[in-house]
Amino acid sequence: MAPQPPVQFTDVAAVVIGRNEGARLIASLDALQGRVARIVYVDSGSTDGSRAAARDRGAEVVSLDMAQPFTAARARNAGLAVLDTAQTPLVQLLDGDCELRDGWLPTATAFLAGQPDTAVVCGRRRERAPDASPYNALIDAEWDTLIGPAKSCGGDALMRLDAVRQVGGFDPTLIAGEEPDLCLRLRQTGWKIHRLDAEMTWHDAAITRFSQWWNRTRRAGYAFAQGAARHGATPERHWVTETRRALIWGAGLPVAALIGALITPWALFLLLAYPAQLARLTPRMGLVRAAFTVLGKLPEALGALGFYRDRLTGHRRRIVEYK
Q1: Of 20, 41, 70, 153, which residue has the fewest beta carbons closer than 10 angstroms?
Q2: Rg for the chain (alpha carbons), in Å?
């Protein structure tokens, strides 16, 4: 029997964002062909022909104004702005380095149809090449979140367009962490977020160098501090614990040890807290993941401190790229 064409979901639009994603973007757009009613690609200053490639595949192309700082949140808002809720009440958001999996849309749309109080549904995002580097493997584990009611989603998710607009969309000033911020505001207005036990997307982190992992982790620290500054006073204390942990382990402890060493060399024994933490985490995470978790507090702390510096000086941080 000849393979059947994919079923098109006429009430679903797709918004894909990217910057110099090359072949990854082409794969992302190709996987959407015939599956959604409308494809919108938002480009953040690509120089690799991404816009032309998207047009060749029938996508509507929105180019962000290069005079303003690029953020993923700003790009997603630009894509959402051209959609019509009456025509496509649901929107599948995708990063340009992600490819939609077969079967995801039928599963996700069916779930939303039966859960009118749910605004966002997401599934399992997997790395294409988790064995290519320890960094890819770490990211693949990062995507493996709990099944069921959730506090937030990642960059790939199916959303109700009217719910997103109800809370004002994504915050364009955030350089990272825009999805948890949006989901928090949705939940505050009564909407629910849900993670399904279903394959959703392939992701290609393509992180092969330590410097890439370091920059990505530093960006996460910035996002923790920024999120805590915005929503830390809410009952759930959004990202307060993550920020405090990064500052204590990544800045407070080493600074205390070095300053204390000026008084007594015994202060350097404070640094033994790191191998102790590694020993504590290894049985649960494995040695490699535990080691990067402990080491990651250093770039996270730098990112958090960078946010505080920017807030003090009024500087608006541009997006931190790691690819």
Answers
A1: 20
A2: 21
User: According to DSSP H, which parts of the chain are helical?
Assistant: 23-32, 50-56, 72-81, 104-114, 134-143, 161-166, 178-188, 210-231, 240-247, 253-261, 273-285, 287-295, 297-313
Length of the chain: 323
What are the b/e assignments for 176-214, b being 16+ CB within 10 Å? bbbbbbbbbbbbeeebbbbbbebbbbbbbbbbeeeebbb
Asked if the model's pLDDT at residue 49 lies above 70, the reply is: yes
Q: What is the spatial distance between Cα 76 and Cα 72, in angstroms, rounded to a whole number?
A: 6
Pair of tokens at residue 183: 């989901």
| Residue 1 reports pLDDT greater than 80 | no
pLDDT on residue 320: 63
Give the phi and the psi of residue 120 in degrees, each rounded to 5.
-135, 135
CB atoms within 10 A of CB 102: 10
Average pLDDT, whole number, for the chain?
92
One-letter amino acid for residue 143 of the chain = W
Region 282-291: mean pLDDT is 96
Token code pair at residue 1: 């029997």
3 state SS of 16? strand
Quote the Cα angle for 16-66-185, to 5°: 50
Please tell me the distance from the alpha carbon of residue 163 to that of residue 104, in angstroms, as a whole number.
21
